[in-house]
Amino acid sequence: MHSTLSFSQATTVPTTNDAFHSQSPINLRFCGLRREAFGISILTRSSSGRVRLSTRGCSKRISASTGNNGTPPKSFDYDLIIIGAGVGGHGAALHAVEKGLKTAIIEGDVVGGTCVNRGCVPSKALLAVSGRMRELQSEHHMKALGLQVSAAGYDRQGVADHANNLASKIRSNLTNSMKALGVDILTGFGTIVGPQKVKYGKVGFTDNVVTAKDIIIATGSVPFVPKGIEVDGKTVITSDHALKLEFVPDWIAIVGSGYIGLEFSDVYTALGSEVTFIEALDQLMPGFDPEISKLAQRVLINPRKIDYHTGVFATKITPARDGKPVIIELTDAKTKEHKDTLEVDAALIATGRAPFTNGLGLQNINVVTQRGFVPVDERMRVMDANGNLVPHLYCIGDANGKMMLAHAASAQGISVVEQVTGRDHMLNHLSVPAACFTHPEISMVGLTEPQAREKAEKEGFEISVAKTSFKANTKALAENEGEGLAKLIYRPDNGEILGVLIFGLHAADLIHEASNAIALGTQIQDIKFAVHAHPTLSEVLDELFKSAKVSFGSFLHCSQELLNFYLLRFCDYALIRHKLLLGLES
After folding, report:
1. Is there a binding annotation on residue 561?
2. What is the predicted pLDDT for the residue at 249?
3. Choosing from 21, 425, 506, 534, which is the catalytic residue?
4. What is the DSSP string of 435-480?
5. Averaged over 138-146, what is the pLDDT?
6. Contact 88/417 with Cβ under 8 angstroms?
7. Is 334 annotated as a binding residue?
8. Global pTM?
9. 151 carries a ligand binding annotation
10. Would residue 140 show up in a list of annotated catalytic residues for this protein?
11. Which residues does the annotation say bind NAD(+) (predicted)?
12. What pLDDT digit, counting tens, does each position of 54-69 carry?
């Protein structure tokens, strides 16, 4: 449920869409927003009865950045053009149509982008298989449940078909949803040729030029392959190739132990492969909270057919050819000296992703990328080489590098649409959850413990940490899946939730209660009173929040703006109730 405030026209943030200047009142939704997004100072009620607020300015200089490309057109083919039809572009397009914008989306490949076709969707199909295989292969697990199963096996092509069919189905659903809502899908590679002007077309065909009042760049990313690594798509592969599951090697090296590497290690070991991790940093899973990482290594790596080399670079990888295996040269990350040579059946390069922004024509509007990423401000507005905002141009998702997650791209796209339709909106990225779909899963939102301690030291406050185990949860024990931990990082002085991390059964589903709490600014002293069904895994979070020790003063802590907000809302409800009673009496 969203709480809304009605603002008088005098206090409305000026909109870039002239059609919205005449609308009054404007509703501003509190969903995943930081208070800074509104620049709220204090709420008051005007003589007319409307809520007014004073604001702190957040203006930035805007530059036309037209160069020699002429002036923007006076009339437009579309209200909004989106370059890229991945999850981010799709989310923006649907929200734009809901807001009444004439919308087009340009796609040079296939609808769905990386996530649907070469990323999170097909990988979850493979992980669903690995999860089933892992259960069936665990004699101890089956025996504990009183089950007896014969030796489990799999059909490689059948598994591959499952992943491919799922991607095709989701791709079709996305395409049909946009067509049904009237979004024009323009086929070809999009290039910005000037302010509010885009050309698109296929190789060998004449380009088409279209104009729009606002443009969103949503071109996503591609696998990053370091220098010295030769990818042949067969024995030295990226995640794009691995998802096709063209063969299951006896021994595969995975370069990188982040989300992608961990998930594929789960798949390959379940299907019978031996895995060797190659990690440049001194520990596996370097991007995770150290405590969660340590537990995950004990459960996901140590008992499985996985070994690892840390603190080394794979400086050269040669594909298998002429009867020879894949050869990997390892170099010490600190001394840069040769350390070892590995010979394996295959190598998966899982060293992250790089923005796909080449050929966008950014030079035509004086925009210079930073390591390939399009520079944007906190509202996804593109900035030119001089640090000025480029009017009517936005960039979302992997292409801007703020948070390389499909759902973050979609949230950013929705935020941009809110802005171009006259409602100031800023996404709180600390409220965006992330998950790794291993067995069991890992999920997180907000800050890790080291990040929280660093922030606390800089800003001068204390933090506390609460933990709870899945071993105390009835549903987890019923599933014979008691291995897991939930961790809460918070401020004991005011109850602010700084971060939540979960390792355990269905952690990716459980994290959203914490994510929504951070997005809505819910404090621990309030969420402690939430009721959870019993017996469910959600009680892991219930116990976690209840175990947090918050000082008594924080129960009385509330900002002046929030007190004003609730007081005025109470007055509004009382007035409505009074009018309804008068109506009934008459």
Report:
1. no
2. 97
3. 534
4. EE-SSSEEEEEE--HHHHHHHHHHHT---EEEEEEGGG-HHHHHTT
5. 88
6. no
7. no
8. 0.82
9. no
10. no
11. 256-263, 279, 352
12. 433 344 444 444 443 4
